[in-house]
Design goal:
mainly alpha, 10 helices, elongated, Endonuclease-reverse transcriptase, nucleotidyltransferase, nuclease, RNA-directed DNA polymerase activity, hydrolase
Length: 169
Amino acid sequence: MARSSAVNLTDIWKDRGISRNTKSHIMNALVFPIATYGSETWGLGAVDRKKIHAFEMWCWRRMLRISWKERKSNDFVKNQIGAKVTLCQKIDKNKLQYFGHISRREGDNLERIITQGHVEGQRKRGRPKVRWADGIKEITGMNICAAHRYAKDRSGWNVIINRVTKGQS
């Protein structure tokens, strides 16, 4: 859906009267929210992150009208845009904010119980599925119990989020 919305904005991308800054704001306001809808709950693996990065670069190249045949690097495209925050970093920040929201809930809240809970028994054969909690561990560098304790303090958790995402908005 996000890809089709980027294609539908082709007239805007081709308009030379609209500045590059305005076009990037349009991309951030109309295309990327569609792509990241509900991303707070995604369990992202390395392959998923590569696909998100590829989509983001496709969007920026489409906006700048840079063909892949021109053999311009992704760093060149990012410098042209001036983008400091990638889509994956935005997803990580949203995921951590949602985790803090869940952790601060009171009472017998189902989401908090699920994130803190542990299921007994044997898992299936093969590689384990990528879990949401594993993503939180990877982003923060701490285990889930410690993350829940830190998330109880809203201001302290925001400091951790800014440190982990390097203060990007």
